[in-house]
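W.,

You were right to be curious about this one. When I first looked at the sequence I had no strong expectations either way, so I just let the prediction run and decided to look at it fresh. Below is the sequence, 173 residues in total, followed by the output.
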Amino acid sequence: MPSAKKTVTRAERGRALEIEPSQPEARVLRRFRVVFNAVKTHFQQVEKKAGVGGAQLWALSVIRTHPGIGVSKLASTMDVHQTTASNLVKALVNADMVVAERNGTDRRAVQLRVLPAGSRVLRSAPGPFAGVLPEALATLDAATLERLDHDLALLIGALHADDRAAGIPLAQM
């Protein structure tokens, strides 16, 4: 009896980790590797030259640009969870790079300011402070960003990924 030829789906090919270089999945996987490597290399350079992590450097740069900013506004500006911003601020305060002051009528609200040590770190650090990926995305036109958003949403769905990871800076991954 002749055997029926089995059709192999993309999902099965991926599970078997036998992706041929000419397959679209392989080309896309290579592109992700290039993106991840560029991001990783940038953050390694930041840490080596500035002595702080990429997310801390970004927070420091936002605080310098917006003296007196609060933790909530910092979180919003960086598009991270408030707890993440609080942890970044705590590390910067402990390193004497930022001061958190309670001025004005609402003594619960904290205003952040960069100290001289923080300014020195910013002068020594390679840019862009927010990271290479946000800077690169900012150069793309609206239609390209819409396509990327749509296509990445499909990929995230296929991964069954946890959306809460969206609030974690890449520098902390």
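Here's what jumped out at me. Residues 87 and 103 are 21 Å apart (CA to CA). And, maybe more interesting for your project: The radius of gyration is 21 Å.

Coffee later to discuss?

I.
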